[in-house]
């Protein structure tokens, strides 16, 4: 996992983007068996949280763009 993250991070640096860790799948012994690394702006925020007007603090501007770029690693 560490090597894969470093690889995708270097790939992102060359192509002008950053990456972050996402989605972890664990087995019944709680060992990580799968991990996804995604473009740092991947996905969209949940509309329930964005449109919540009862929130005390103001919302920060969203940085998500909906891009689906990712690499998924299976650990043996």
TrEMBL record:
<dbReference type="GO" id="GO:0003677">
    <property type="term" value="F:DNA binding"/>
</dbReference>
<dbReference type="Pfam" id="PF03101">
    <property type="entry name" value="FAR1"/>
</dbReference>
<protein>
    <submittedName>
        <fullName>FAR1 DNA-binding domain protein</fullName>
    </submittedName>
</protein>
<keyword id="KW-0238">DNA-binding</keyword>
<dbReference type="InterPro" id="IPR004330">
    <property type="entry name" value="FAR1_DNA_bnd_dom"/>
</dbReference>
<feature type="domain" description="FAR1">
    <location>
        <begin position="6"/>
        <end position="74"/>
    </location>
</feature>
